[in-house]
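Fresh eyes needed here. Kindly weigh in on this sequence plus structure tokens:
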Amino acid sequence: MNFYKTEITDLIICQPKIIEDSRGYFFESFKAEELNKFLGKEIKFIQDNESFSHKGTLRGLHFQKTPYEQTKLVKVAKGEILDVAVDIRKNSKTYGNHFKIILSDKNKKQLLIPKGFAHGFLVLSNEATVCYKVDQKYSPKHDSGIIFNDKILKIDWDYDLDKINLSDKDKNLSSFGSN
């Protein structure tokens, strides 16, 4: 596994080493020992989640408030998404900045999103199956989010916003400044 730092501190791109031959391919999609060595600390993932969505579905921008903040390791098993992480750590030099990356079943990239980030994704392919590990259980009482088209964050989703499919919950998320 190769790890790459992004311009936002602690946000890491994980790229597995893929072995291909005439039969197909093989790769190790997660190795706790390698990740923890790269980070210099231990992350204990406790749950794997999976979502299936159709083209134009936008999920997010979600996060959980203290003490139920989550670290996520996001990958795409099928399809392609635009994955977005927003730094909401108030003491961070990159507070309010966001990072975008295409994750797909073709590029096999993963994004490690630490505690203190809002996260969301937009499905670009006809269908997408997104899988992610978390290190903290879901707490409805601590669940929160930021509206995807927040005027302060100015995230360019590079998509016709009129064609985006949102849940009722995501349509009613607050603005960045109110969290």
